[in-house]
Write a structure and sequence with these properties.
The chain is α/β, with parallel strands linked by helices. The protein is built from twelve helices and seven strands.
Length: about 325
């Protein structure tokens, strides 16, 4: 019961935090709130493609790695602003549903789906706790968690939900930052604690091996585990300017680009001024390079890894 109370408390805190920083995050980063993929690794890639292209490539590379070329219904558990779910729905021509603890992010996700001309019954998003989503068993044949597992206070419950919600014969894909296996030194543990301070993760970091064990205990069969640390390392080296000067679509005229960038800068500035302590802490952390230093330091030290774990649910 204590664990349940702690989980509920963290969910409520997370909802308030993500709502508070959500508008700024959306203005700065767009609908995709995950890292990008560089097949050459870092530093060889040297950011030869844009932040947004790298993020879309990341989702496509995950699907290819998992061997998924078709699906009837996708479930994105911890869906952010819906960018991943909408992109997959487009690529696979499937229906999709996303679950997120933040009402603001869910609203933004549904707006994105409507802008992309998906019907309300084709692609939609709901507010809910990923540890106890109000969804029926086996509701999707493709269940995805893209950088949401690390935010869950109880990894056992979260993986159990991934397994429960996946239909027999379906695929579960868990993509996230993981701690290195085995025991770690005090100095390395402090690096993980810094991640918790910057990103409001709950502190119970799991290794890829631990996630795979949990999947097995929930009846899933792990078929692939890719260590993509080198392929995402360096993503945080992007500067603030490249985010603010990004454009929403190619082939825009100079006047269109100027207006979009100008409006984004004004909105972002206003949100930073009026957003409160949580927003200011996030913005200052980014501007001073704290987020980059913490993530890159964790990856470079080896205490932080990035894995793509693919599992199947027996049946059919």
């Amino acid at each position: 019961m204590a664990g349940s109370t702690a989980g509920s408390r963290h969910a409520e805190t997370s909802a308030h935090l993500y709502d508070a920083v959500g508008q700024v995050w959306l203005e700065m980063f767009g609908e995709h709130v995950h890292v990008g993929y560089y097949p050459e690794g870092w530093p060889e890639s040297n950011h030869k493609k844009s932040w947004q292209t790298a993020q879309l490539d990341h989702v496509d590379a995950v699907l290819k790695f998992a061997g998924v070329s078709k699906a009837e219904r996708l479930l994105d558990l911890g869906c952010g602003y819906g960018g991943t779910a909408v992109h997959i729905a487009e690529q696979l021509e499937c229906k999709a549903i996303g679950v997120n603890i933040s009402p603001f992010q869910v609203q933004a996700a549904n707006s994105l789906a409507r802008r992309m001309r998906f019907g309300e019954k084709e692609v939609y998003f709901v507010v809910g706790d990923a540890l106890q989503p109000d969804l029926p068993d086996g509701c999707a044949d493709l269940v995805v968690s893209l950088e949401s597992a690390s935010y869950m206070p109880c990894k056992e419950k979260f993986v159990a939900q991934l397994a429960r919600l996946c239909a027999a014969g379906g695929t579960v894909i868990l993509v996230d930052f993981c701690r290195a296996p085995g025991s770690i030194s005090t100095s390395l543990a402090k690096r993980l604690a810094s991640m918790d301070s910057i990103f409001a993760t709950p502190g119970n970091w799991h290794s890829a091996e631990q996630y795979k064990q949990l999947m097995g205990q929930c009846g899933l069969t792990v078929i692939r585990d890719g260590d993509w640390t080198r392929n995402v390392c360096g993503f945080w080296n992007v500067c603030l300017g490249s985010l603010l000067f990004r454009t929403s679509r190619p082939n825009m005229t100079f006047a269109q680009k100027y207006k979009e960038v100008h409006d984004r800068a004004v909105r972002t500035g206003w949100l930073l001024l009026t957003g409160g302590p949580a927003v200011l802490k996030m913005a200052v952390g980014y501007l001073l390079g704290q987020q980059k230093a913490v993530v890159q330091g964790g990856l470079d030290s080896g205490v932080l890894e990035y894995h793509v774990i693919v599992a199947k649910k027996p049946g059919k």
